[in-house]
């Protein structure tokens, strides 16, 4: 293939636009029926237990004025419902829900497990969370208990059972949220109960201690174990623990917290048929794919400043794909600014909040919710913005909430009669890879991301900035609808994942294997049969060396360009006649080796980029790779849109392409449109080849077929 300089032309229309039908599955999960939105949710996180009961009535009046049609309640209210152990009452919340049902405002109820009451831990230090330094946390804030302790779990499940039994059939209720932001303040649990659970997990995983010793290579440094009970949790040690141990402990914790969520879901489903979600964030210490496996829809939080709006694009692309065919929710965002004791972010400029909401809805969201309704008068987050001040006056963000509702009313008819277009290009998200890179940070220069999420976002942003509609798919996700898959920084490539990718490639897809992929085994060991494990064979190469390139001065050549690099490099040579070298390394240490190869496989291609190019030349090469293969595959042409403006492609109920363009940088934008396009809100035919998008404004365009 000849690498091409750039993609050109206006966004195409036609048969490549398809409905997100809800028939895709993640990792072999059950097929969900198609879902149809009935409204765009405009919601708020609400804490009536913290204020006088008589305030509920005036809250309802104010919410109706603003078009708030949903409240999220309960996540921090455990001590209000169970002030003494075993004495549970949900009466207050039933009365609140009665009033909101009468007002036509829906409710999502959260399980209150993030903030266990003091009676659960006072005098019982063994029930508290312990961090990796061996420090036992105390009651206060949240997430201070060990969910591995059987008494803690029993208490959690007891109150969830009472809430679900008492409120699960309430007419105001439309959904449930498990906990809130699991593992946002803490990471791995090192409590005695967690360590005991760790030993059971290891036994289930390996069966025998001999197998663990063999797979982890424990004779190194005499860490050989005679029983599972001897395997430590990775507390501080004089130097570093075995990589296998550290990564396994992360995976164990993340599996167990997902099981904790599963058990909550099972209790709720005994009494209620409403869908269940969890509010998370890519930064939290959970296995996102495993966590959402047993949930009904995805939700996330985001508190971006006006300069961080691209985080909304990334998270929307990630959580839209988490539960295919089911719209996600943005469950928390700030009205004006984020804040807690001693910290706060800059306030949003005029119009940004409405742009944020437009983007979330247009990209596939059903819910847009604020944290919080009324400024907290006590606690650690008293400096956080809210819709109303603690003295019950409109906040500085109140008028912006009004603008969101004005936008929602105009946009809702368009979105209820359309669905997101399934992208043709995606970036892989691997929770196993993330755990490995937390154990073994990547070699990098100062300007390269230091976390796994940053590397995935780097590729995602590159595709986005080139104008292609894209998403982030979990490692176990189906590859339905895709033509182009990019998998960066995935040290272990499982046989199961590889088989699905091989089928995808043979059917005509292109798999771009990014740097750092394949260099480790399942148990965070080094492959012993080939440098990149099974990836060598699929890519049609032999890996000669794997080594760090940062600050070595080693360069490469590809497509007539001289390149500098950062990170780990796999220096390879082709070993199949159908493998071509597209980029070579220029060093006497690895003579005759390549960093960029292409192998034909069936109707498609496997492209191995085994070192990350940097600088202007590196950016140019990455752009050429993406646009070149996109054009070769016949991907829908990229949107001709100015930087800072996001296009969300959808398809309406008649099969017509519908684009919603939102300006997010406050500078205003432009969008190229095809002949015959119409303004979707007025039906007027658009004149010329482009339209202007106002600063923090939006335009909707439809192209009748």
From TrEMBL:
Its EC number is 3.2.1.23. The keyword Transit peptide does not apply. It catalyses: Hydrolysis of terminal non-reducing beta-D-galactose residues in beta-D-galactosides. Residues 424-627 form the Beta-galactosidase trimerisation domain. Residues 45-409 form the Glycoside hydrolase family 42 N-terminal domain. It comes from the Bacteria. The keyword Metal-binding applies. Coiled coil: none annotated. Keywords: Glycosidase, Hydrolase, Metal-binding, Zinc. It holds the Pfam family Glyco_hydro_42M. Belongs to the glycosyl hydrolase 42 family. PANTHER family: BETA-GALACTOSIDASE GANA, BETA-GALACTOSIDASE YESZ. This is Beta-galactosidase. The lineage of its organism: Bacteria, Pseudomonadati, Pseudomonadota, Gammaproteobacteria, Cellvibrionales.
């Amino acid at each position: 293939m000849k690498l091409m300089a750039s993609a050109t032309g206006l966004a195409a229309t036609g048969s490549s636009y398809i409905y997100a039908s809800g028939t895709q599955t993640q990792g072999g999960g059950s097929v969900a029926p198609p879902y149809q939105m009935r409204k765009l949710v405009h919601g708020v996180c609400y804490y009536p237990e913290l204020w006088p009961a008589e305030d509920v009535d005036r809250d309802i009046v104010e919410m109706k004025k603003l078009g708030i049609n949903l409240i999220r309640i309960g996540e921090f209210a455990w001590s209000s419902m169970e002030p003494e152990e075993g004495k549970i009452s949900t009466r207050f919340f039933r009365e609140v829900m009665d009033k909101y049902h009468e007002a036509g405002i829906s409710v999502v109820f959260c399980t209150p497990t993030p903030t266990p009451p003091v009676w659960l831990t006072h005098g019982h230090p063994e029930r508290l969370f312990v961090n990796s330094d061996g420090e036992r946390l105390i009651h206060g804030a949240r997430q201070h208990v060990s969910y591995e302790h059987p008494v803690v779990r029993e208490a959690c499940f007891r109150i969830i059972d009472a809430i679900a039994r008492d409120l699960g059939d309430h007419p105001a209720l439309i959904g449930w949220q498990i906990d809130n932001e699991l593992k946002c303040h803490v990471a791995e649990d090192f409590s005695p109960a967690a360590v005991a659970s760790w030993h059971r997990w290891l036994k289930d995983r390996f069966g025998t201690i001999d197998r663990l010793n063999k797979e982890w290579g424990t004779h190194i440094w005499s860490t050989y174990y005679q029983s599972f009970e001897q395997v430590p949790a990775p507390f501080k040690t004089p130097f570093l623990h075995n990589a296998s141990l550290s990564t396994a402990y992360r995976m164990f914790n993340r599996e167990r917290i997902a099981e904790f969520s599963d058990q909550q879901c099972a209790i709720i489903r005994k009494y209620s048929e409403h869908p269940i979600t969890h509010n998370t964030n890519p930064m939290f210490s959970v296995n996102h794919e495993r966590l959402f496996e047993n949930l009904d829809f995805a939700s996330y939080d985001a508190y971006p400043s006006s300069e961080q709006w691209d985080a909304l694009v990334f998270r929307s692309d990630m959580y839209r794909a988490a539960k295919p065919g089911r719209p996600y929710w943005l469950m928390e965002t700030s009205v004006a600014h984020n804040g807690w004791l001693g910290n706060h972010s800059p306030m949003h400029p005029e119009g940004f909040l409405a742009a944020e909401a437009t983007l979330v809805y247009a990209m596939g969201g059903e819910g847009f919710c604020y944290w919080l309704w009324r400024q907290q008068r006590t606690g650690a987050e008293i400096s956080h913005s809210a819709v109303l001040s603690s003295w019950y006056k409109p906040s500085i963000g109140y008028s912006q909430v009004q603008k969101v509702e004005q936008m929602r009313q105009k946009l809702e008819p368009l979105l209820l009669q359309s669905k997101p277009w399934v992208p043709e290009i995606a970036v892989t998200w691997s929770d196993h890879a993330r755990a490995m890179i937390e154990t073994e940070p990547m070699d990098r220069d100062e300007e390269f991301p230091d976390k796994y999420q940053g590397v995935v976002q780097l590729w995602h942003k590159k595709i986005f900035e080139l104008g292609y509609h894209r998403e982030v798919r979990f490692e176990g996700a189906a590859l339905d609808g895709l033509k182009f898959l990019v998998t960066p920084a995935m040290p272990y490539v499982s046989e199961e994942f590889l088989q699905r990718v091989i089928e995808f490639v043979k059917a005509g897809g292109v798999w771009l294997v990014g740097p750092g992929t394949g260099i480790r085994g399942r148990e965070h060991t080094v492959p012993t049969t080939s440098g990149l494990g099974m990836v060598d064979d699929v890519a049609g190469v032999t890996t000669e060396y794997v080594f760090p390139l940062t600050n070595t001065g080693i360069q490469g050549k590809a497509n007539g360009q001289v390149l500098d690099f950062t990170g780990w490099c796999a220096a390879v040579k082709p070993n199949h006649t159908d493998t071509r070298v597209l980029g070579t390394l220029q060093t006497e240490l690895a003579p005759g080796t390549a960093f960029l190869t292409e192998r034909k496989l069936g109707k498609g291609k496997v492209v191995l980029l085994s070192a990350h190019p940097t600088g202007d030349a590196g950016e140019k090469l990455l752009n050429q790779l993406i646009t070149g293969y996109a054009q070769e595959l016949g991907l829908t042409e990229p949107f001709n849109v100015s930087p800072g403006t996001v296009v969300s492609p959808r398809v309406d109920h008649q099969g017509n392409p519908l684009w919603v363009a939102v300006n997010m940088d406050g500078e205003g934008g432009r969008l190229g449109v095809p002949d015959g396009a119409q303004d979707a809100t007025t039906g007027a035919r658009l004149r010329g080849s482009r339209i202007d998008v106002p600063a923090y404004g939006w335009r909707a365009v439809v192209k009748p077929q």
